[in-house]
Amino acid sequence: MRTLYIGETNRKDSEYYYTLDKSAFNLDIKNYKEGLPEKKSGIFYTSLSDFNNELELLHEVCLLFDNIIYNPPIDWKEHKFGININHRSVSVRTRTECFLLCLCGVTEVSGLENIADIKSFYPTVTRQTDSPNLWIAGCSFSSAVGVDDRERWGQIVAKQLDMPVNFLAEGASGNSYQVDKILSSDIRKGDIVIMQVTIPERNTIIYHETLCHITATSYESRPSLIESYPPDRLDEPMSYINQIEDFKRLKNICKKIGAKLMLWSQHLMPGVLLPHLTKQEQYFHFTNTKHSSSTKFFLDYGSDNMHPGPLQHQAYAKFVLEKLKVVQD
Predict the structure, then answer these.
(1) I want to staple 138 with a disulfide (CB 3.0 to 4.6 A). Which of 169, 242, 282, 311 is the partner?
(2) pLDDT band at 80 (very low <50, low <70, confident <90, very high)
(3) Residue 208 Rama label (left phi>0; alpha psi -120 to 50; beta)
(4) Domain limits at 318?
(5) Mean of all residue pLDDT scores within the chain
């Protein structure tokens, strides 16, 4: 019986294969014709690069094995050397996993549970109870950056309403991402969904195999982002249009489900998004008393001296509770 491991050919994984079989064989495009007849059983290992990305040839070779096992490395070293397909770079990991998914249609492949499911990138939140729940969405203003979880406005609102609360908010996330999280959650009739709208110049992309929230300041800490997502894409007109359509979808779905929806923001938003929102009966714009609506004028600051502090969160909670009565009526 012959077993073929497919992943990345590197020193650490090779040492592992030799613990399984002292005569483990690194199969490649140059030696497979001689190697397969000489070694009738045992462990073989290879990678797409070992076959110079000749996928049809590797596919034929795989069919000669009794067992195919996907064994990805802990850290792919080859992702920097992506394969160019239709003028776009595709990581070796992605290419390998696509190959194996096609291969499993004709022969059994083990280890496919190691393939990253795109859904797993989105943190799922399970509703607290079967009774009506409160759902809080937004960016760092809502996820408790700078304050204790108990001090954030959503927690205060939940306590006042005496409702179990689920937080979907993530720092640096954009409006479209948050709408997707809401619509992917177990929202039911009688629930209350409150979304704190953030600035529209944000997006989320897959960067080095993980979800990455991008804002205008992201390029300072990750200059290489420019290659994957140029800064001028953050405020392209289509992005504004998509966000407007996302809010329409959210409003429509909540109405059909029978869930209450409230949108609010303190952010100043250039472009067409704010004018669109202000026309919606579910939207309310927050302004501190005797202060500008700009985020530069918080009542106090959190522990990071950048985000709203406890007093500001209390003001948000009071505002949300007052406006929520209007939505419920």
Answers:
(1) 169
(2) very low
(3) left
(4) 121-328
(5) 90
Task: Indicate the SS3 state at residue 277.
Answer: helix
Return d(Cα 139, Cα 142) in angstroms, integer. Answer: 6
Residue 240 maps to which CATH number?
Answer: 3.40.50.1110
Quote the tokens at residue 322: 């007052």
Single-letter code of the amino acid located at 312: Q
**Residue 62: per-residue pLDDT:** 97
Q: How many domains does the chain have?
A: 2
Range list of H helices, 204-309: 218-221, 225-228, 237-257, 273-278
Is there a contact between 236 and 167 (Cβ–Cβ < 8 Å)? no
- Helix (H) / strand (E) containing 156: helix 153-161
- Residue found by looking up tokens 């992506």 in the block: 82
Band (pLDDT 50/70/90 cuts) for residue 121 is low
Structure-token pair, residue 267: 């952010």
Distance CA 139, CA 316 (A): 14
